[in-house]
C-alpha cells in the first residue's frame, strides 16, 4: 500500500501514524502542502501512484482546498472534501447533527452585533459564543452578563475577517467537569476518553486531564449516527453528558475531521495509530476489490 500524508507540520500524531505505516512495510509519500501547487488538472505533488491520501493538514483552509483538488484528480483522500467542509464549519456541523436528529446544543447564527445580542439575551446567561471556524478551544467565550456580551461582540466586530461577522451563539451545557472524545472510523469507535478540567473548556489542548472512557450503547449509537451525518471517515466525535456522569444521556456538540489522537493513545490500552492503519488497509483493499469487480463486469481481463 502506498499512502500519501498531507501535512504542513509533522506533530506527534503524524509521527505515530508514519511509524505504524513504515513498520508494516507500506510506502509513504509525505506531501508538504506549503511547497506544492494544485492546478485544475494536476498538481506538483507526487500523487500518481498513491492508493490513498490521508489529510493531516493543520490549517483548515489548506485541508479544505488540498483535499478538494486531490478528489478532483480522482485520488482517494480521507477524509473526503465533503466531510471536511461540514466538519470545518461549526454552523454546518450543527446543522448536519440536527438534521440527523442527533441531540446537540441549541444554536443560533446572527450576522450583526444587535441580532447576536438579542440571541444571547434569549439564551440567557451563561451562554457560549464560538467562532464558526476554529479548534483547540481558541476564541471561545462563556458569556456571563450583558456587559460581557457587548464587549465581546464589539471585539469580534472589529477583527475584520468575515467569519467573525458570523456570530455563532450556543446554549451553555452544564457538563460534569468533563466531556468525551471518541475517535472512530466510519462510525466504529477505536477508543474514547474523558477530558476533565476545572475550567469550562476541557480540551486536552487546554490542559484537560484525560482518562479512558467505556462507551455505552447510547454513546455508540450517537457516534455511528454522527459519523454518517457528516459523511464518515476518520473522525473525532465530542459528546457531553447531560444530567451528570451516571445519567446515560449525551449531547453531541462537534465532529472533527482532522482529529488528533496522541492524548487518546496515551490514555487507553488500544493502539490507536495501529487501528487507523488497519482501517486504511481495509479501505484500500475494498477499493481494489471494487475496481476488480468493475473490470470483470466490463469484460476486461488483466494480463
Secondary structure: elements and pairs:
Layout: E1 2-7, H1 12-23, E2 27-32, E3 52-55, H2 60-72, E4 77-78, H3 81-88, H4 90-99, E5 107-110, H5 113-123, E6 127-130, E7 141-143, H6 146-157, E8 167-171, E9 178-185, E10 188-196, E11 209-212, H7 217-230, E12 234-241, E13 250-256, H8 262-267, H9 272-297
Parallel strand pairs: 1-2, 1-3, 3-4
Antiparallel strand pairs: 5-8, 6-7, 6-8, 9-10, 9-12, 10-11, 12-13
Helix pairs in contact: 1-9, 2-3, 3-4, 5-6
Quick rundown:
This protein is α+β, with helices and mostly antiparallel strands and 303 residues long.
Notes on the protein architecture:
With 303 residues, the protein is an alpha+beta fold. Helices cover 37% and strands 23% of the residues. It is built from 9 helices and 13 strands. Strand 1, helix 1 (12-23) and strand 2 (27-32) form a beta-alpha-beta unit. Helix 3 (81-88) crosses helix 4 (90-99). The longest helix has 26 residues, at 272-297. The two termini are 21 Å apart.
Amino acid at each position: 500500500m502506498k499512502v500519501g500524508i498531507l501535512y504542513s507540520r509533522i506533530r506527534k500524531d503524524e509521527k505515530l501514524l508514519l511509524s505504524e505505516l513504515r513498520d508494516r512495510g507500506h510506502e509513504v509519500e509525505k506531501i508538504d502542502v506549503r511547497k506544492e501547487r494544485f492546478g485544475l488538472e494536476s498538481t506538483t505533488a507526487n500523487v500518481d501512484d498513491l492508493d490513498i491520501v490521508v489529510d493531516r493538514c493543520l490549517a483548515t483552509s489548506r485541508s479544505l482546498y488540498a483535499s478538494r483538488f486531490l478528489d478532483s484528480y480522482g485520488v482517494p483522500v480521507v477524509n473526503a472534501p465533503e466531510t471536511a467542509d461540514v466538519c470545518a464549519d461549526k454552523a454546518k456541523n450543527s446543522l448536519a447533527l440536527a438534521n440527523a436528529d442527533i441531540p446537540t446544543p441549541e444554536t443560533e447564527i446572527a450576522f450583526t452585533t444587535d441580532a447576536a445580542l438579542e440571541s444571547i439575551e434569549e439564551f440567557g446567561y451563561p451562554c457560549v459564543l464560538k467562532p464558526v471556524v476554529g479548534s483547540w478551544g481558541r476564541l471561545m467565550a462563556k458569556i456571563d452578563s450583558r456587559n460581557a456580551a457587548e464587549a465581546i461582540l464589539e471585539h469580534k466586530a472589529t477583527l475584520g475577517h468575515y467569519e467573525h461577522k458570523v456570530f455563532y451563539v450556543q446554549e451553555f451545557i452544564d457538563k460534569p467537569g468533563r466531556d468525551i472524545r471518541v475517535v472512530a472510523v466510519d462510525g466504529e469507535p477505536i477508543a474514547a476518553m474523558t477530558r476533565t478540567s476545572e475550567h469550562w473548556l476541557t480540551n486536552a489542548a487546554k490542559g484537560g486531564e484525560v482518562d479512558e472512557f467505556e462507551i455505552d450503547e447510547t454513546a455508540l449509537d450517537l457516534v455511528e449516527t454522527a459519523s454518517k451525518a457528516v459523511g464518515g471517515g476518520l473522525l473525532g466525535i465530542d459528546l457531553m453528558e447531560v444530567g451528570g456522569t451516571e445519567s446515560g444521556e449525551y449531547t453531541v456538540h462537534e465532529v472533527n475531521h482532522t482529529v488528533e489522537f496522541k492524548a487518546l493513545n496515551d490514555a487507553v490500552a488500544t493502539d490507536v495509530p495501529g487501528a487507523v492503519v488497519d482501517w486504511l488497509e481495509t479501505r484500500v483493499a475494498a477499493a481494489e476489490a471494487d475496481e476488480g469487480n468493475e473490470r470483470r463486469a466490463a469484460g476486461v481481463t488483466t494480463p
